[in-house]
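User: Second chain of the day. Same drill as before.
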Amino acid sequence: MNKKVLVPLCASMGLLLGACTQNETDALSSGLTTFVATNPATRTSMATDGGGAFFWENDDQIWVKDKTDAWQKSVNKVEGGKTSTYNFQLAGSYDKTGSYTVHYTGKNSASADQVTIATAQTQTLPNTSTHLGESGDCGVGIAAAGNTTTNATFGFHLSHKATCLVFAPFVKGREAANYKLTKITVKSDNTIAGNYTLSTQGLAIKDNEKKEIVLSTPNNDNAGFPLSTDKKDLATNGAYMMIAPGKHSLSVIYHVVNATKNLEKDVTITINSYTYNGGTHYRVPGNLGDLGPNSDGDHVASIDGGDLVEVFDFTSYTNKYYMWDAAENYWSGHEWGSTDSWQPIEEGVQNDKYPKSKEADASRWFNEAEGVFEASNPLFKKLPNANEMVWYVMKGDPHWDNTTQWKAFGKTYIGGVWLKKLSVIAQENNEQLDDLKLKNHDGIDMRNTYKDYGVVPISGKPKNSEISKYFFLPALGFYRSGQLISPGFVGSYWSSSAYPNDSRYAYNLYISSNTVDVYSHDNRFHGFVVAQPRLFY
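Assistant: Same format as last time:
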């Protein structure tokens, strides 16, 4: 599709870091370990053309908890302006077989687990994002040798935990040229700024709780950002604010001035209570109406949170296509964004270097064992099993959503399914959560008894009042014989369970606008998505 969507760094993106051979040699000689940012979805600022590229910015650093549980801060920081890759060096001790927590706590951070979401944020120029690192952007990841996509030592995906609001105000008629946007104030019914503790679970308020944030927009001339006419235009005045995730009722106040007439006006939009997710950005309505001489510019609208445009970023899952229970992904070492990429990202394009046999590609090849068993590789062990997949399908109230936008491969797609969270399903069906692993809703253990289950999904998104009970799965497509199949239209997600009657097959969840089902007769050699980091809830 041709829609252009700006996806700030806060949108659930992945960051892949690893130590390359030469850097590793240099680091060992100096007693340091080198982490190299190589993934195309690196942070901390984003390209503003909707292309999905992200960059490290000056003074960025990372923290890693080493094998002694001591936090180590990179001894160097980014220099020389924005860059898509950077070598971070860290002291400390690390085992190649270990896994280590990684934190990004903002620009010039002095703490490995403390984050400040600022009450005063400043964006100097329109449609730029270099200020986000000092405004509250943050993220966590787990570094492990098995997560790397090159012959590096460690790799991880950074999951961002703050929320980003996106503004692009405009006015009707001819008054746009006379007005400038000087600042945006966001007021909440509860805490959206302050000092927070960062963990893998997200952000927890520590102290200095605040309910108001002001984003100043001075521009080069200190007169403010220009306003566009009749429609939003990110290039003209795109503005970005970090807030804490959570359920908030917000008032957004656009402060505009007309210097030629010495006029100041505040235009307010109130947004009813809505749950804002971490690692996601939300486009805030910005129609300021008529700012002519007879307009008081007082109050424009009260809207429901559903009028916000929410864009999910699934870039970190573009290297999560695997044959079933394989040790490495389908395109391991040659993923999209690498210097020698084999991975097709356009439908209909094939690359012949996909895995073809256990003998030729043992690490990328599927588990050929037969009988009743669960996957053995670490990523697959974390997946829902066949019984849980059936609960999702038959009791998860699947909704096919053809409006929610999401990012992958540097593009914007629509198409995906909303499913009730497993904890909600258990509660609604008077079951213990752990018992859902043992049998499906019919009392059948799918791990040793074959049966297919499927439903036609409801068309549309669940009600806003119920949305917190659900999670979203994008239609990421899948790979068959080296070709990407139908991204935006279908998705196939592996379970941890083998099909008991044939060593060629394994259970998976298939989603489309026509059906959501648990299917067993899909070959293990297909490249389906392994939903790790966690996508199923």
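The chain has three domains: 33-112+130-160, 163-311, 321-535.

User: Great, on to the next one.
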